[in-house]
Structure formats: structure tokens, C-alpha cells
Amino acid sequence: MSFSLPPAGGSRFAAAWSDLAPVGKDLRRGGYSRHAFDDAEMQLRQWFTEQSQRRGLEVENDRNGNIWAWWGEPGTGAVVTGSHLDSVPGGGAFDGPLGVVSALLAVDELRLRGVTPARPFAIACFMEEEGGRFGLPCMGCRLLTGAVDADQVRRLRDPDGLSVADAARRVGFDPATMGADPARLAGIGTFVELHVEQGRLLQNTDSTAVVGVGSEILAHGRWCITITGQGNHAGTTRPDDRKDPMIPAAAAVLAARRVITDFPGAVATVGRITPVPGGTNVIASSVQVWLDVRHESAPTTATIVDLIVAAVRVEAELEGCTLRVQRESMVDKVAFDPGLGLQLSELLAAPVIPTGAGHDAGVFSAHVPSAMLFVRNPSGISHSPDEHADTADCLVGVTALADVVEDLVR
Ligand SMILES: [Zn+2]
């Protein structure tokens, strides 16, 4: 990786993007797989640290695996911007890193404008936002804000069975210090996260708008349904003698699509199924099915999950299988600070749009005035190697973020 800092915004963006381009490429899935404490994410942390230090920012790691780069002295009433460096498995290049790169370039832009913050200012990168390795999204900022129990987090395991505590220890973080960090949280005055849009609402709302301001995040959650049957031979076991957990698993997939038709605005997805042992000529002994459900209302989200689970239970009973449902996470609808949102949308002359995607800014909004800027994504595709934003739009995003920070650090 190079650590060049070319003079102009456009070439600085291109240089940053080419630094990041080779890190964590997923040759099997396409796109990127960058997860908390893995090699790719550690490389990105190093890149961010060096880029911040080149800009004279003071870099520190907090107790929860998040990185902070301070312009000037840390203190109370801080304006904080940033995002995350990790990705979903086989994710796009923009989700997360766009907010981090834009924050670094916004600092450059503010210096060109001769702005010196009158308030403490920091860029932050939050750990495991996607929950791609340990299953809990926004892990770093949930730990920081005390939204999740540190003991419970330390025990979470990745698909290889490695715990958060062990994974953190391997890369030099002390898991014992994880947990609520009220002093740090109290120091944040405002949090703004720039992010690639993960849909096409911006385009649908105002076809000329490049940047939008977030209004709210749908209620969303993740559930793991474990269906247990009887592992057996695919060739010699008659259909009547089978207890095949893949049958109720299939019912989960179909119910996820069918049930939401009664709830306008809802989405339900089965994006991950793991049969055990996972052999072509083997009837699985158990299957784990992960369900992601989102709707404006948390009670409706719960109802949708109940209806999907009921459909799975019917098939499980017919098949002689048992069922265990575990909620991995649930977040109520988040409305971003309306005053701050209005301030930013007026400043940028930008439309205000909601999103169905979860973000660190959503977790922070329960504690500090928080806002999001979304950069146009022409296809709307995200969490996919096909995720894209035009460079010209990303540079408009940098300018918008610089405008916002300039306004907030006065
Ligand atoms: Zn993201």
C-alpha cells in the first residue's frame, strides 16, 4: 500500500481508493470480505492510522476496538464524523470506507478553506458495524454506548468458533477492557456519518440530488432458527423415514417472502443457511437459518417473525424436527435528530430520506444528536460487489461533509 497524499481532492480520492482496492478482496464471493480483527480489517486500520497521522491527527484506539483520530485536543462537545472499515461477506467497496475516506478528505478541504475547528473534532472508525464475523451489527459502538453487555459480546463466536475475546487478543486488543465508555460518549456533541446510499430513494425523491440527509432507520433485527432432525443417508433413507431439517428451512425462505405481503413497507430475508454436516449425499442433521426482518414498527417486526416461525414450526412438526429460535439483535426504529437534520438539509439544499439499513449513527442517536449524509448510488445495489457510486458524486459528498463539519465546529 502507498500512503501518498496528492494535492487535489480528486486525485486524493483516487489515491485513497487505490490504496484500499486490494485489501480484503474476496476471490470466492467477489467484492470484499473485511471483518473485525481479521487481516484485511487490521490492514485498513493501519492505513487509516497512517493517513490520519500524515494529516497531523492524533490517533487513539478506544477500549472497544474503535479508532479515533483527533484534530486538536479531545474534549467535550466534540463533532465526530466517520463510519466503519468492515464489510459484509462479499460486500461492496463503498459501504463504510466511503464515510472514512470522505472524512479524511473533508479535513484536507477544511484546511484549504483555512478552517480551524473551535470545538474538538474527530474522525472515528467503528468496529464490526456489519456483524459479518460475530453476528452482532454495530458491535463497537454498541459496546461504547453500553447498548450491549460486554460479557455477552466477549463470548460471541465467529463461524470458525473463535470468540470475540480470543480474536481481539490475537491482534493485541485487551477484551477485558470492553464495555460502556460513558466518559467518551459524554464528550461527543454531534455525530455525522456519511454513507453510500443503499437504495434508490434519493434518485426517486429528487433526480438531481447527489447527497441526501437521513431522517430515520427502520426497526430491524436478526434471528437464528436452529432446526434439528436426524442426519442420514441420502440414498437409502425412504422419504417416510426422514427427519430432514432442510424441509422446514425451505419453509422459512418461502414464508419470509409470503408473510410480508400483508405488511406494506416490511422486508424479510433469509440470506444465510448452514446445514450440518453439509454433504451432497447426506440428509442434514441440523440446519441454521438466519432471518433478517425490517419494518417501521418494532411490534410489527416481531409479529412478522412470529408468523414466519409459525410456518417453519408446522413443517418441522410434520417432518419430526425440533426448533429453537434465538434473537441475535433487535433495534427499534431510529429517528435522527430532527433539528440537526433540518439544519443540514438547509445548509446543503439536500432532500431528507429514510433508510432500511442499520448504521452506527442509529446507535449513537439514542445518546447524542446524530445525522447521516447519503451519497447517490445509481443502481441502489449494496451489500454486493456491484455496489457503486460515481467518483464525481463521492467528491460532492466530500464537499458536503466539509460544509457540514465547518458549520458544526464553529
Ligand atoms: Zn455501512
**SS-based structural class?**
alpha/beta
Total beta strand runs: 15
Share of helix among residues?
Answer: 25-40%
For the biggest sheet, the summary is:
9 strands, mixed
First-to-last CA distance = 35 Å
Ligand set: zinc ion
What coarse outline follows from CA principal-axis ratios?
globular
The overall pLDDT average reads 95
Strand residues, percent: 15-25%
Discrete helix count? 13
> H/E series, N to C?
HHEEEHEHHHHEHEEEHEEEHEEHEHEH
Oligomer: single chain
Q: List segments where confidence is low: pLDDT < 50 over at least 5 consecutive residues.
A: none
Radius of gyration: 22 Å
Task: Walk me through the structure.
With 410 residues, the protein is an alpha/beta fold. Helix content is 35%, strand content 23%. Strands 1, 2, 3, 4, 5, 6, 13, 14 and 15 form a nine-stranded mixed beta sheet that branches. A four-stranded antiparallel beta sheet has the order 9-11-7-12, with helices on one face. The protein is globular, with a radius of gyration of 22 Å. The two termini are 35 Å apart. The structure holds zinc ion (ZN). The site of zinc ion has 6 residues, from loops.
